[in-house]
Design brief:
Strand content: 25-35%
Low-confidence stretches: none
Helix content: 10-25%
Distance between the termini: 22 Å
CATH superfamily: Regulatory factor, effector binding domain
Largest sheet: 8 strands, antiparallel
Strand order of the largest sheet: 1-6-8-7-3-4-2-5
Structural class: alpha+beta
CATH topology: Multidrug-efflux Transporter 1 Regulator Bmrr, Chain A
Number of helices: 2
Shape: globular
Number of domains: 1
Length: 159
C-alpha cells in the first residue's frame, strides 16, 4: 500500500470529546449521532480526531474527538474552550497538506493500520507525526460489512 499526499480544506465539525482508549470511541459516536438527530443536522462525513500518541499516553488518558462535518447553515452548539469527556463542542480541523493511508477492513484493525502507516511514513521519509491525526470513515458502518469498511487515515505533513 502506498501513501498519497493530499491538500485538504478546513473542516468545521460538531464533536463529542472522548477520553479513554481509542477502541472505545463507539459510545461517543453514539452520543454524537443522537446530538445530530436532535438538532436536525445531517452530516455525510464522520471523523475520528486524535490528539495523543498511544505509545506515550496511558490508555485511560487518550484524548480524541468524535466529529461530524457540519453542513453550511447548521445550528451550532456553544463554543467550549477545553471540553471534558462526553461534552459537545466545535472543532475546526485545519486546512493543509496531509499524508493519507487507505485502510479496508474492520475498525478493530485500525491500530494495526496506523502502525503500518507510521512505519511507511518513516521509510518514505515523508515527515514526522504531527500534533494530531484523524480518520475519515468513508462507508456507513450500518450498511457495510466490517471487512469492506473503508477508512482514510490522515497525518499532517510539512509543505
Amino acid at each position: 500500500m502506498s501513501i498519497e499526499i493530499k491538500d485538504m480544506p478546513r473542516m468545521n465539525c460538531i464533536a463529542v470529546r472522548h477520553v479513554g482508549p481509542y477502541h472505545t470511541m463507539g459510545r461517543s459516536f453514539g452520543k454524537l449521532d443522537r446530538v445530530l438527530r436532535d438538532r436536525g443536522i445531517q452530516s455525510h462525513t464522520w471523523i475520528g480526531y486524535y490528539f495523543d500518541d498511544v505509545e506515550k499516553t496511558p490508555p485511560d488518558e487518550l484524548r480524541s474527538d468524535c466529529c461530524a462535518v457540519l453542513p453550511a447553515g447548521a445550528a451550532l452548539p456553544e463554543a467550549v474552550e477545553s471540553p471534558e469527556d462526553g461534552e459537545v463542542h466545535l472543532v475546526s480541523i485545519p486546512a493543509g497538506r496531509y499524508a493519507v493511508w487507505h485502510h479496508v477492513g474492520p475498525y478493530t484493525l485500525l491500530g494495526e493500520a496506523w502502525r503500518g502507516f507510521m512505519c511507511e511514513m518513516e521509510t518514505e521519509k515523508i515527515g514526522h507525526p504531527g500534533p494530531f491525526a484523524f480518520e475519515i470513515y468513508v462507508d456507513d458502518v450500518e450498511r457495510t460489512a466490517p471487512e469492506r469498511l473503508r477508512t482514510d487515515l490522515y497525518e499532517p505533513v510539512s509543505p
